[in-house]
Amino acid sequence: MQNCYFSKTNCHKAKTMSLKTPEKYLITKRIDEFFVGIYSAFAFVTRFFKEVFKPPYEFKEIIRQCYQVGYKSLFLITLTGFITGLVFTKQSRPSLSEFGAQSWLPSLVAIAIVRALAPLVTALICAGKVGSNMGAELGSMKVTEQIDAMEVSAVHPFKFLVVSRVLATTIMIPMLMCFTGFVAMMGAYLNVHQNEMTSLTLFFQNAFAKISFLDIFSSLVKSIVYGFTIGMVGCYKGYHAKNGTEGVGRAANSAVVLSMFLIFVEEILIVQVTNHIRYM
Amino acid sequence: MNEFEAYNGEVIRIRDLYKSFGDLHVLRGVNLDVYNKENVVVLGRSGTGKSVLIKLISGLLTPDSGSVKVFGQEVHNLNKEQLRKLRLQIGFSFQNSALYDSMTVKENLAFPLVRNAKHLSRKQIQMEIESVLDDVGLLQTINQMPAELSGGQRKRVGIARTLILHPKIMLYDEPTSGLDPITSIEINKLINHVKHKFNTTSIIITHDLTCAKATGDRVAMLYDGKFIKQGTFDEVFASDDERIKHFYEYNFIQ
């Protein structure tokens, strides 16, 4: 009797009385969930654009998030950018030396950094650092009912948590990209100076000789798109986390994986469009 | 006097409420009336839909069918602005307190106030926070982070955060769960203190009979997604219903 909450007859009744009915699916459970997921992501993005222009604006939170995204990623970005520029120059040197074309090194490195490396390296670093942080933070707020608590106290959680974070990544990642580009160029200069004793002015003159406005503009567009993607995916995954702490880990992990995947897809698309414009 | 203070009927009126999650039917035809300045305790086992019920009242969840009226307004037909106004009248104390981890106690309390009472000056906000923290006996924790508080203190700060907007209705989700008996008694006293000082109407979700007896003017027993008995504590537990008898016995075995 003590093991069962009910009397013998009621215990049997409780076990046999079903509170569940089998659910029907349009195709299969997984395929249905896939399409529901796409719809839900689309609705999330649409909601962002609806909310972003509507007052009240959470300026203080946007600035705080910009600080979190920008300043706190600075060390990692500096280190990675510098090493990328240095190593890329070092690795390219032997191939160019075979043709006696070391003097092309600054422009080759500049093209690689401005067109591809700076936006991509910044985005991938931020997807790992910022995206996972957003997924985990919002995920834990979701599973501990902090988001519900905001909602019931008549505060707009979407605006406070999502809009501010997505705006912060969209603003800060282009800035970080410019910084990465600069630091990577300095890494490249170190190697060039070590070998050819080139001055900084001459290095940058050679480097920017082959860089066009389209290169810089497309990189800026890329990093804005990547910033938006990282913020959106991180917030979406965190905002829809479920199943306790396990769900928080899953949200952080899938925020990184999905944003990296989307960044590569966007990279291919933007490069195609840019090349089309370049050779028009 | 605002439209909510002027309201003269049942504060909460629930009719034929159904709610399912996927293939799991949680609420199956719930009916409940809660009157002004009344504490109603909803008792039941874990997983019977007690928390779902108060989430439906506060508009956090949408019912499959049925009606939830608060101050005569159908909660699920309200537009965003109407729902926001209504939520200012409802305080929701969460089971795990749901304090914002990244903010101090003071910031937790200021968060809803700054956004909903824009006419208040910084000094008035500070005074309001201190007054509410004093009510729950935790003025000394004003600059602490939630992680530095004990379970009972977190519950009390959670209640303080809801009280700061001076709600007319309080919804308590398992206010004494996970607390030792002495802290539970303190929370029960606090619930009664809130009722008398702030003139609130409350729904208290619990499976703790001590809490139900100490705080409830009326008890409603939820079983299999329906209320099987409502009345005063003594009336409900004087019942011959096997399900109620065993719930009572089980509490003492525990």
Distance between the termini of chain A: 84 Å
Strand order of the largest sheet of chain B: 6-7-8-3-9-10
Strand % of chain B is: 15-25%
Radius of gyration of chain A: 25 Å
* Structural shape of chain A: elongated
Secondary-structure element order of chain B, N to C:
EEEHEEHEHHHEHEHEEHH
User: How many β-strands of chain B, per DSSP?
Assistant: 10
User: Largest interface, per-chain counts?
Assistant: A-B, 25 and 38 residues
Helix content of chain B: 25-40%
Count all strands of chain A and give the number. 0
Question: Mean pLDDT of chain A, nearest integer?
Answer: 89
Q: Helix tally of chain A?
A: 10
Quote the distance from N terminus to C terminus of chain B: 47 Å
> Uncertain spans of chain B, ≥5 residues at pLDDT below 50?
none
Structural Rg of chain B? 18 Å
Describe the sheet with the most strands of chain A: none
CATH class of chain B: Alpha Beta
Explain what you see.
The complex is a heterodimer of chains A (280) and B (254). Chain A has helices at 8-16, 29-52, 59-70, 74-98, 105-143, 146-152, 157-196, 200-209, 213-239, 244-278. Chain A has 280 residues and is mainly alpha-helical. Chain A is elongated. Chain A starts with 7 loop residues before the first helix and ends with a helix. By secondary structure, chain B is an alpha/beta fold. Chain B has a single domain (12-253), classed as P-loop containing nucleotide triphosphate hydrolases (Rossmann fold). Chain B is built from nine helices and ten strands. In chain B, the strands form two sheets. A six-stranded mixed β-sheet of chain B has the order 6-7-8-3-9-10, with helices on both faces. In chain B, strands 2-1-4-5 form a four-stranded antiparallel β-sheet, covered by helices on one side. In chain B, helix 3 (105-116) packs parallel to helix 5 and helix 5 (151-163) runs parallel beside helix 6.
